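Internal tracking record. Fields below are filled automatically when a chain is submitted to the structure queue. Please do not edit lines marked as system-generated. If the sequence contains nonstandard residues, flag them in the REMARKS field before resubmitting.
Queue: standard
Priority: normal
Entity type: single polypeptide chain
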Amino acid sequence: MRKTIAAIAMALATTPAIAQEPTKRFPAALAGHALIRADASVTSPADAPADLAVSGKFTGPGNTRNHAIGTIEGTSFLSDKAAPRKTGYTMPLKGQSLQGFSGIKTVGDGTYWVLTDNGFGSKANSPDSMLMFHKVKPDWATGKVEVVSTTFLSDPDKKVPFRIANEATEKRYLTGADFDLESIQPIGNEIWIGEEFGPYLIKTDLSGKVLAVVETSVDGKPARSPDHYAVQTPALPASTGAFNVRRSRGYEGMAASKDGKMLYPMLEGPIWDAEKKDWEKIDGKEVLRVLEFSVVDNTWTGRHWKYPVEIAGNNIGDINMIDATTALVIERDNGEGSVEKACPEGKPAPDCFNVPAKLKRIYKIEMTDANAGGLVRKIGYIDLMDIADPKGLARQGGKDGKLTFPFVTIEDVDVVGTTQVIVANDNNFPYSAGREPQKQDDNEFILLDVAELLTAK
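SYSTEM-GENERATED OUTPUT FOLLOWS
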């Protein structure tokens, strides 16, 4: 999910220098590049409320209603207020934005399951943004991506334990005011989704109908963010201790075991340590929890692993298993855009990047019975800011035999075959401009040759 400029500024203010490399860097070479246009959209279902025929009506100042199509300018949320970077697109828009993708899973036949992110960044501005997942098929030869199918989430059986935006309707389609979908795992005839607001696990059937919503438990206690339905605004301006997961730091990625018996949802930010009054750390480094959920028993096992981020304030974008004990994890900083086009320090401007990207990596990690409860082992990584492109396959962003992936939210990675991975960005339509300072990013899919990483021990 996209981050507010205030949250990013807070993270950057406490960010130390990059620590000494604990793991080996492996090469990555571009094998394919395909795009979906930034403004791609889908039509809402015929039985959806008329309100959902137009989306983005609450994206203006103060989230106030605005029905006039194309009257709210998109501006990068990494812009300095004194120098806003317009992205070239406007809201509201007819239909539903296909938007950026926040989770991916390889099907095995050249198609992939992907999730559209919650909407426009928050519960308050996304009540008319429908929740959906898709099956897509990149054509690496043409650079186009076919949207094979789109499935909208609904709750006709009232499995969601709180009041939803479309409570009074028959089909009860879900929106970005209800959930923030971040990761997807098909298991049998069911779809499991990792969600960020709660954070929750959501189980649906293949038609998108909700079958269950599962609360999160960490160390035997509820894990809740400020957006959890049971967390209420305090009457007095003081902390209540009602939540221990920071807003927009719930589940960002979720892996599944190869046999489909276990899920491994991963929090984007550290858990609050009430005793130390600090975010959870080990040896001075912030750590992010990878939890374990039994699909068979429908319960949390109580086991977990801790992932150390390289820089305080870094986030993860996705996690997917390689085999029974190793996984791929996207780790990223909160910048976007190339350093070459960065603004002079202390001089933000609309035609440069005020917070350029520096650390965008995919790590291979190991999670075993032996290190359960402790730190994962970081085996190695590839650098998404330095991808080799000897064949000139890059369709945009390539230069001098190299491709960079300088997006603030890179939220999709999975294994393809035995030597490759697929990676994609969440383009935060209409709020991200990482390729060019004033041009909305497209949805980009890249296929990478990374045999050395996948076989590294």
